[in-house]
Amino acid sequence: MIRCDKCNARAVIFQRYSGMHLCREHFDGDVQRKVREVLRKTGVFGKGVKLAVALEGEKSSSVMLYIIKRLFHNRRDIEMVALLVDEGISGYRPEALAHARSLAERLSVPHITRSFKEVYQITMDDLARDDRSKSPCPRCAQMRKDLLNSAALDLGADVLAVGNNLDREAQEIMIGFIRGDGNEILGLQPEPPQQKKIPLIKPLQRVPGREVALYAAAHGLSKHIPGGCPYLCDPLRTEVGKSLSKFEGKHPGTDYSLLRSKERIDRLKALI
Ligand code: SF4
């Protein structure tokens, strides 16, 4: 039996990037510590705040809501609302939404759902049917982002939390460089005028996807949705994801290094 490096109990995970074996209790503590550190850095929880949490029903956002609720359940000055988006994808979204709603209710977090149909007068099923030549996935992602932003603002939220985990963050950073978004990344070019943006936080950005999955399984937050989204198609992200996971296998800590590089760039941007 492999033992926890902190307490000698049975280890449930080996973190190659830290060289630590951890038992269930210390693994839980480690995940929650990473989330706490990210939240502390945002500086928004020192006072009363209204927090909108984007909840999709998959593992990452479910774990995010669960941990935030656990961390703040005694804070009466922190108001939480789960924000659900119905893109109108038959055979996929209804089940994910049902899981998201049941989790929000289990945690006593109020929830609201906004749909593509009510906001854009079109569903993803309509979009996919109308334009068979293109993948609707990138368009859906942008519409979803815009909808979350405006819904959170309408709710009077101060901040919006999204469930990007470390794998996702590393992919975003790499894709930004591959696509040549250097100007935006380095802040060398002002962003074009656009709709008002709510401050975004990513509480799971330091938690690897594998650990999110383990945490979700351990706390009954996993819900397998057979088949996944039928319109999922982002070849660049898929390739970047595979390459990064190979790198991480050979050079543990690669994803953290990418995140640190981005954080350094952000600090430099703040000084410009
Ligand atoms: Fe939309 Fe793509 Fe997500 Fe499916 S995978 S819900 S198409 S963004």
Would you mind describing this structure in some detail?
- The protein has helices at 24-42, 59-72, 93-106, 116-120, 124-130, 137-154, 166-178, 182-186, 209-218, 235-250, 254-271, and strands at residues 11-15, 20-23, 49-54, 78-86, 111-115, 159-161, 200-201.
- The chain is an alpha/beta fold.
- The strands form 2 sheets. Strands 5-4-3-6-7 form a 5-stranded parallel β-sheet, sandwiched between helices. A two-stranded antiparallel sheet has the order 1-2.
- Helix 3 (93-106) links the parallel strand 4 (78-86) and strand 5 (111-115).
- Helix 1 (24-42) crosses helix 9.
- The longest helix is centred in the first third of the chain and has 19 residues, at 24-42.
- It is globular, with a radius of gyration of 19 Å.
- It starts with 10 loop residues before the first strand and ends with a helix.
- The mean pLDDT is 91.
- The structure holds iron/sulfur cluster (SF4).
Helix content: 40-55%
Q: What is the element string, with H for helices and E for strands?
A: EEHEHEHEHHHEHHEHHH
Which class of secondary structure composition applies to the elements? alpha/beta
Distance between the termini: 53 Å
- Percent of sequence in beta strands: 5-15%
* Count of helical regions: 11
Strand arrangement within the widest β-sheet reads 5-4-3-6-7
pLDDT average, as an integer?
91
Rg, Cα atoms, Å: 19 Å
Q: What is the strand tally? A: 7
Overall shape: it is globular
Q: Which ligands, by name, code or SMILES, are bound?
A: iron/sulfur cluster
> Main sheet, how many strands, which sense, barrel?
5 strands, parallel
List unreliable stretches of 5+ residues. none
